[in-house]
Design goal:
It is a single chain. This protein is an alpha+beta fold. The protein has helices at residues 69-77, 94-121, 133-142, 144-158, 162-179, 192-204, 206-209, 213-226; strands spanning 2-6, 11-15, 24-25, 28-33, 36-39, 42-45, 50-54, 58-63, 82-86. The chain has three domains: 2-86, no CATH class; 94-179, no CATH class; 182-226, no CATH class. It is flat and about 80 Å long.
Length: 230
């Protein structure tokens, strides 16, 4: 495996395992994982990865293991070249990593939701208890009594400020709003023309999903049923 690493003014290549050698690299390099391709500051190049090199035209594509050290040095020294490292073993692109992190953070916040509601409702009659965190969030912004109670609870039980509580709740609400889009909702009064457009929009998402043909078939069948006029 060779590790490519690019600094502010130059790029270095480090050869492993026997010894460390460094060369100045003038080229740009990208890492391609499936449908995702990103400019990278450093890239791990494995023998089964495919290396594509491009100057003003497409020049070639080979397994990294079949490129000689001499040819490799010429490639990476070319000021006009761009290298695309297509990973044999697919990694997650940065967008997917960030989405996973966001979902995991929201999962943890959701666990805290249960604790917050239980703590808030202690000693309250049923008609004054918080039904869900969405309701509680609205009350914090409009009801001083609720806000003061949550402020005291957050400070005493969690060592948090009311602003911290609102930030966490708002983070999860924003994520839920992004994930659960109203534009795909329907009811019995939704016009057929709107249902048709919703179905088309839903099917168009398959081009971005990168799923198996079996999944695509199941999804298409499901979408046509969901957006069929009753």
């Amino acid at each position: 495996m060779r590790v490519l690493q690019k600094g502010l003014h130059q790029t270095l290549i480090q050869c492993i395992p026997r010894r460390l050698n460094f060369w100045l690299i003038q080229t740009m390099f990208y890492e391609k994982n499936g449908n995702c391709m990103e400019l990278k500051q450093n890239v791990n190049v494995d023998p089964n990865d495919t290396v594509r090199w491009i100057t003003y035209r497409y020049n070639g594509s080979k397994k990294f293991s079949s490129i000689s050290p001499k040819d490799w040095n010429e490639l990476i020294a070319n000021r006009e070249a761009m290298l695309i490292i297509e990973k044999n073993r697919k990694n997650k692109c940065s967008g997917e990593i960030k989405a996973d992190a966001r979902n995991d953070i929201c999962h943890v916040i959701g666990i805290w939701y249960e604790i917050l509601l239980d703590d808030y409702n202690i000693g309250l009659p049923s008609y004054k208890q918080a039904r869900n965190v969405g309701w509680l969030y609205k009350q914090i912004n409009t009801n001083k009594i609720v806000k003061d109670k949550v402020t005291e609870l957050a400070k005493k039980e969690y060592g948090m400020t009311i602003n911290g509580v609102k930030l966490l709740i708002n983070y999860k609400l924003s994520r839920n709003s992004d994930v659960h889009k109203d534009s795909f909702n329907r009811d019995k009064n939704t016009p057929a023309s709107v249902l048709s457009q919703q179905a088309q929009d839903a099917l168009n998402l398959l081009r971005l999903a990168d799923q198996s043909s079996d999944f695509q078939s199941a999804y298409e069948t499901y979408v046509r049923r969901v957006y069929r006029k009753s």
